[in-house]
IS30 family transposase (Kutzneria buriramensis), 464 residues
Amino acid sequence: MAGPKQKQVREYRGQMPSPGRPTVAWREDRVRFWAAIATGVLTDEASETAGVSAPVGYRWFRHAGGVNPQLSTTVSGRYLSFIEREDIALLRAQGLGVRAIARRVGRHPSTISRELRRNASTRTYGVDYKASTAQWHAERRAKRPKVAKLVVNERLRDYVQQRLSGEIHDAGGAVIGPDGPAWKGRNKPHRGDRAWATAWSPEQIANRLPVDFPDDESMRISHEAIYQALYVQGRGALNRELVACLRTGRALRVPRARSRQKAWAHVTPEVLISQRPAEADDCDVPGHWEGDLVIGLQRSATGTLVERTTRFTMLVHLPREEGWGVIPRTKNGPALAGYGAVTMAGALAKTVTELPEQLRRSLTWDRGKELSAHAQFTVETGLPVYFADPHSPWQRGTNENTNGLLRQYFPKGTDLSRWSAEDLAAVAATLNSRPRKTLGWKTPAEALDDHLRSVQNTGVASTD
């Protein structure tokens, strides 16, 4: 049985069971978190900026579907702030009355009285007042989410859903196409089947509605509202698994600033191609190399190294790591395909250390992450590494041309892990014994041999 005091409070604010544990952070923490996300930083860094743990930040990002909720940085002065609520709690604990607290805080007595009753603890029907609990109630009550249009308009919802996930039929009306993987809240499968669907984009749906329903204003919705119905938890009536019908197939939206960033953190200003010695541009001094990977089926690969002056080619054997095909692929797990950063650096180092020192002047690579351990490679070999500019294969034209020649032996769509180091050496020897027009019809092996002989003769002459 509730006592008189509990009945009085219940009549004032109604039966209001506790919605759960108070939040671990306040509005200003979320504002700082999303402001950091808007700059393009990762969720871990944004959480640190907001002063919350990484799991909390990931939960905020996931529940919002990666969509910035656009929280206002300031709260109107007509509402009590958290600092004012802390003052109220302290003064209340000191035994001051409502009017005395109102004078100290600078608010109307009715505001203080209403605050003490409305935002007190909900686990009991007493009027124990805590600033954190009061702030939690105030922020929760201030949300007042507007009902989404797709929730109340069933006809519009069916139209949008049919254009997103409608089935594909053949001429006979039978459903065709693979089923695709079961929805697990992740991005589209990597190089795997996806379910076939009509897959209209939200922009196509939004702009087609006035064409199909020119006189029905209720059949209108913006493309952003469709995106939010898909991504924001509890925002709309569309199922989350329908994001698999979008072209990107992303489980979460990517902040615009983050999408502009490139995954080239290993390319620092001092290793850009603009810092490469000028003598490498003229192709007059041997010892400057270009490198890349030739990719095959099932993540197999072979490394290629081409000397810019003589066109001499070396192939790098990249066998599978132990556990390939046995250990399931895991996110951020070990690179078992054979060209992870550490494995690649080791295989390259083993190859180039066979060269004389005068033939180790520079190596120009594309932007692939397989050479992200370039600093370790340079220390071990003494061969400095430089990276070409984005989308500029012409800066490594010699290597690109050689890779085209190699496709005669290693066609696309074939498993390159079948070939041993001896097989690769035989193919490299074949290319190096093929005469080239740019070398005056000498072979790359002959051009390299002539250079080494001239260097040796110059050394003997200088000794005399």
